Amino acid sequence: MFEIPDIQLNQYGKPARIMFLAPYAPDAPDFSKKPYTGNGGYPQYHYNIYKAIQDIGYDVVSSSKPYSVQFAKGNVDYVFSLMNRFAMSRPEIFISSYCEFIQVPYLGAPPNIRAIAEDKFLTKMVFRSLELNVPEGIGLSGEKGIPAQAPFPGPYFVKKRFGAASGGIREDSICSSWKAVGSCARRLMEEGHEVLVEQYCEGIDVTVPVLGGENPVILGYVQPKSDKPGSIITEDLKLHDHLGYQLVSVQDMEQDIASDVRKIWSALGPMDYFRIDYRIDFETGERRILEMNICCHLGKSGSICLAAAEHGYSQADLLKYIIAYSMDRQKNLRQYGTWLI
C-alpha cells in the first residue's frame, strides 16, 4: 500500500529536529505529561504522539504554546503541529501561515486549504463545485440571525460551523422542525459560535482516512460507534470514546468513494494526510460527504491507525510516512524568496 521510509536527515546528516506543537504538548524543562483537565483524552494523546516521534528517532522539541513557532526558523527543520484550537479567532491556519512566512516545512496542508477544510460551510461549497454529493446547508451567526422560514426541507442537523471533536453536538442536534433549529442554533450562538445547519442524513457515519502521495492512499473505511439516536457522534462520545471504532464494508461504493477522493485531491492536494467523513445509508445506497479533516487524530485507537493496522502498519509506520512525505513535498519551500530589509 505504501513503503515505510527512513527517518529524514537534516543538512548536517543528523535526524531532522522537529518542533511538536499541541495544546497539551509537554513543555520544558521536564517535558512531562500534562495533567488531565476533563478535556477528553487530549493530554495523554498529545504526550503519546510526542513520545512516538521521539521513539522513531527524531530529535524533538515540544511546546504547548502556539507562539513557540516564532523560534522555529534556524532552530528546527520541521514543525509537527496539532495546534488546531487555542485562544484566538480562526486559529487553525495560524501555524501553517507562520511557517510559510518563515519558510519552515510543517504538517498538514497550505493555509488556504486548511481554511477550506476548517470551515465546514466553505467545504460544502467547494465540494458542491466539484459535483460531490453533500447535504443542503446554511451558515448562521449572531450577526445574520436565523431566517424566519426554513431554506430547505427538514429534518435538520445543527452543529458548529468551525470546530473539532463533535464539539457542541448533542442528541437534540437532530431537529424535526425549523423552530427546534432556532432553539439549538441560539444555544451555540450564545456560546460565541457560528453555526452550520444541514439537512439531516439518514444512515451511519463512515470516515475514510487518506494519506498523501503521488496518488492518494485510501487506508480503509471506519465507522465511529454510536449508541445515540440516528447513530450520530456527539461531543461526549468523541471526548471519552467509550465505544471506539470499527472497520466497515462500504459494499459496492469503493470505486465511487475513490472517485470522490481523486476529485478532492486534484482540487485541493497535496495534503499530508486527511479524513473524509461521510454519512452513508446502506439501505438506499446514498452517500453524502459531511466534511474533511486535516491534521486529524493519529492515536493508536483512532480511525487512521485502525485502518492502517488492517494492512499491517503501525502508528510508527504512519508517522514515518507522513513526516517523510510532508518534508519531501515542501523541499523547495525555502526557495520561495528571501527577506529584504
From TrEMBL:
Record keyword tRNA-binding present? no
Please provide the record's keywords in A-Z order. ATP-binding, Ligase, Nucleotide-binding
Q: Look up keyword Zinc and say if it applies.
A: no
Gene3D superfamilies with a match to the protein in the record: ATP-grasp fold, A domain, ATP-grasp fold, B domain
What GO molecular function terms would the record report?
ATP binding; D-alanine-D-alanine ligase activity; metal ion binding
Checking Pfam families in the record gives:
Dala_Dala_lig_C
Q: Which domain of life is it from?
A: Bacteria
Q: Where is the ATP-grasp domain?
A: 124-324
- Family membership: Belongs to the D-alanine--D-alanine ligase family.
Protein name as it appears in the record: ATP-grasp domain-containing protein
Q: Which organism is it from?
A: Akkermansia muciniphila (strain ATCC BAA-835 / DSM 22959 / JCM 33894 / BCRC 81048 / CCUG 64013 / CIP 107961 / Muc)
